[in-house]
Amino acid sequence: MAPSDVKPAVPGESLLAVENLSMSYGHINALKGVSIEVHPGEIVVLIGANGAGKTSLLETILGIYAPAAGTVRFRGNAIGGISADRNVRGGLCLVPEGRGVFAGMSVLDNLLLGAHHNMRNVKKNLQRVYGWFPILEQRGAQIARTLSGGERQMLAIARALMSNPSLIMVDEPSIGLAPIVVNGIFEILSMLNREGYAILLSEQNAYKALHCAHRGYVLETGAVTLQGSAKELLADPAVREAYLGA
Amino acid sequence: MQVFIAQVINGLSLGSIYVLLVTGFNLLLLVAMIIHFSYPQVVVFSMYIAWLAMKFTGGNVVVGILAAVASSILLNLLSAPLFQKVMKKRDEVDINSTMVLSMGIGMIITDVLSHSFNKGFPISFAGTLEGNGTLFGSGLISVSGGQAVSLAVGIIVVSALFLLLYKSRAGRAFRAIAEDPNGARLVGIPIVSTGFASYALTGVLGGVIAVLLAMLLGSASPGLGEQVAHKVLAVSIIAGLGNLVGGLVVGLALGILEAVCQGYISGSWSNAIAFVIMLVVILVKPKGLFGIKL
Lengths: 246, 294
What we know:
The complex is a heterodimer of chains A (246) and B (294).
Chain A: E1 16-25, E2 28-38, E3 43-47, H1 54-62, E4 69-74, E5 77-78, H2 84-89, E6 92-95, H3 107-114, H4 122-132, H5 134-138, H6 149-161, E7 167-171, H7 179-194, E8 198-203, H8 206-212, E9 215-220, E10 223-229, H9 230-235, H10 237-243
Parallel strand pairs in A: 3-8, 3-9, 6-7, 7-8
Antiparallel strand pairs in A: 1-2, 1-4, 4-5, 9-10
Chain B: H1 2-32, H2 39-56, H3 61-86, H4 95-116, E1 123-124, E2 134-138, E3 141-144, H5 145-167, H6 169-179, H7 181-186, H8 191-217, E4 219-220, H9 224-239, H10 244-264, H11 270-284
Antiparallel strand pairs in B: 1-4, 2-3
Helix pairs in contact in B: 1-5, 1-6, 1-8, 1-9, 1-10, 2-3, 2-4, 2-8, 2-9, 3-8, 5-6, 5-8, 6-8, 9-10, 9-11, 10-11
């Protein structure tokens, strides 16, 4: 795709800036003052175990939950507390955990749902997505349930692209997939990044994720405990012990 | 043979009305996440409004149709905030509170109709919406102009509705929320406004159904809504709750079954026969013929 197709970030600012974000489900504090940043053109990974708050963070950024405190700025605008559908319209998108496609709907319907707020460019975007993932064009009429796990993850990513996002958030893309399929998914994410997309990724599979990311944050019980470049994190003894099994 | 053909025609027009009612009920179930058991009462109320409007305009059919559609949209949109208010669970169908509210709305409508319109006597659309003249007759069986028109309109409306559901942007959003409300929210489908859109669409639909029913039956009584509501609930359960395609097939089948029964068996046994068959189906297939999609 031409870089001009990506909604440009406001120059001089980070694409996404989360500051001191807190969020709770009732009495349970899921996020306790999280600060992260994503710059244009970056892949940033959130590493953390189950229940560390990765999904809560991504979904709060998207606007599913209202923050209890802190700010979320996306392309220079404060978006904390703004609904998810408005944020998707504004260029944010989330590929949900567990290959969240609509299993009972066709592949094409799934893609078109991603274009719900962007029907004007639907033909162009379909062609572009089909160029990257020809198998989705062949399977357009097929019900998504009949796809393999890897193909479903591919469909979920492709659906997100249909909204012309400037930041793609991907929640645990490797979960439940065979290692070789996981490699394919990370290759897709790297390819999209080379095409100009910024990506915020959450992963338990820290080794592979850090190998494709530029920077990373380690999340533990709702707070950032460590941050740095992917290289630094890969070399960090605490990370190696807790997340790389070394 | 003529009797059979005439009754199949009648059955198809009755069936297409069932299909529209069941689809409206299912849409509210799937997208607005309410059990609107009394949706048919809203439709029958709109028949009365059409009758009233035509009475005051000297039988102006266009005014009658517009009045029915307006009344149904208005009733649906007015009840929407009530439903939203009583719902505790907005991510899934909240059976208890929405069903009680819906039954309440139905009872109020039935009471209003039996006290405040035509002194509680059945109303008649004879000679206006029903259409004059018989297209063809054979003994007691005949197909009137109104019945033929209602069949044609019924088929067109059913087709248009299913095209909208399966080929349009709004229909896609409806089906996405129906399948997975949380997933729909994550891809940026606005849940609340799409929910209200389903109230509006079923409102329009209710008005159209009211006109079709008036054309087919030629009359209405305060108890009609409740009678139809039982059938609509039965059809949607037999087909599989929330199953749009199932509702299409079973709705048409029930219409034809009832009409053919009326053609060959004297006395009004069609309801009893239909319910016996549905009872057998639900015993054999508790989740409905086409499976629950909820």
